[in-house]
Amino acid sequence: MSVQEPQVRSTNDIKFIMKLMSTNQKKKFQLIQSFIRKNFRDVDGFDELSELEVDLHKLTDDALADLYEFMDQTYSQGQPYFIYEFCLKDNVTQQNLKEKIETGLPQNKSLSVDNKYPRVEITRISEVEYHENHCLRFSITYEQFVETPRRQSDTGEESKAKTSLDVIFDFQSSLLYFTCGENKYALATKRVIMHYLLDTFSHFSAFSMTSSVKKTKFEGDFSNLSKQSIVTLDYLDSSVEKNNYEITNYLRIAFSNVTSEKVKGVRLSGSNLFESIEMAERIRFGDTIKSVKFTLRHHRVTTSQNLTGSGTSSAVRMDFTNSLKILFSDDENVALHIDFVRHLMATLKESLQKIYTETDVKTKIQPLIERAEAKDNLIVQGILSRLKEKITTLYNGDPAGNSVISLLNEYIG
């Protein structure tokens, strides 16, 4: 399995954020302001767009990493899929669903669940169509309105955000995909669908890695390790690379640790990450993998079932923070994205359904732990060697100094 290297420095995070500001500056700056005020209230500044780069240097590396991840998720080019699970009621057929969507969500009619502000309207803007890959697809617009004062005793509203996305019911996998960049669009669309198609589904919910891991069986003591990271590592190392799929490189892995007093989040980037000491340290400290980006290749197979060198590759990011989001960085193989998603979800569920024993898990991750411990040993060795040099200089020939040096020699390799 391929792997990745050291952490992207904070200066690169700032460069990425500033590069994003080349277009739609006002909207993006407002988004940054909102993110900072919500998550880092004690940070001053972020009042003027012209001072943004200076203000970004006020953030800690962890805060910058969080902002980078947020902006990267929101504005990176590519095709996103928020993953939901659904099940039709026994008396509802696929054709019934199509008809219910056409009548319950009339084309070009704006629908809203309530009138509270910010108020959201969802409008179906296309026909509801079957596709050859066992999917039912239609397009919608999401529009958000805020209340605005007009006169002293009168109020109105104005549109503050508008976007379009596809809604895809995948009958082959019983998954529903929302092709939007932000979770709030998927949530609002789901609320409208559930409200106007209430009697259609026996099950309809976002796929959550955190909730799913709670149902996975673990036998033994895992107190120092993140169970979500254990499942994710198994998924990436064992499950994904089946049926002619191969991970050819790891591009980025992000960790979080809400219980840590110091480092709350770390993002590793590069290549050969699974061989890096940084990766080993995060696993050893019980950090949770919250997102991973890798290159996934699907090889073509000859009639003799031999893999060929040709195939289809795509850079894939899976974000486990809220409801699962899968993002494809390329726009060339959109027609094959559904096949990739089906494979990614089927193999993820396979890892979630395994039974993880303490012995097996520790045996598997032991090489990672040993790399982290080896680094600790090198650091300690360096400290002891420098201490020995100072004692030798200060107490050369002194019997007490010689005793301390003799003791240090027992620990210095």
Mean pLDDT over the full residue set: 83
The overall strand count is: 15
* Largest sheet entry: 13 strands, antiparallel
How many individual domains? 3
Kindly name the structural category: alpha+beta
Written account of the structure:
By secondary structure, the chain is of the alpha+beta class. It has twelve helices and 15 strands. Strands 1, 2, 3, 4, 5, 6, 7, 8, 10, 11, 12, 13 and 14 form a 13-stranded antiparallel beta sheet that branches. The protein has a two-stranded parallel ribbon with strand order 9-15. Helix 1 packs parallel to helix 4, helix 8 packs across helix 10 and helix 11 runs antiparallel to helix 12.
What secondary-structure arrangement, pairings included, does this model have?
Layout: H1 10-20, H2 25-39, H3 52-56, H4 61-75, E1 79-88, H5 94-104, E2 110-111, E3 119-124, E4 129-131, E5 135-151, E6 154-170, E7 175-178, H6 183-196, E8 201-206, H7 209-214, E9 217-219, H8 227-239, E10 245-256, E11 265-269, H9 277-284, E12 288-301, E13 307-319, E14 325-328, H10 337-352, E15 355-357, H11 358-394, H12 399-409
Parallel strand pairs: 9-15
Antiparallel strand pairs: 1-7, 1-8, 1-14, 2-3, 3-5, 4-5, 5-6, 6-7, 10-11, 10-12, 12-13, 13-14
Write a brief structural summary.
The protein is of the alpha+beta class and 413 residues long. The chain is built from twelve helices and 15 strands. It has three domains: 66 residues; 128 residues; 144 residues, no CATH class.
Question: What labels would you give this structure?
Answer:
single chain; alpha+beta; two-stranded parallel ribbon; 12 helices; 15 strands; globular
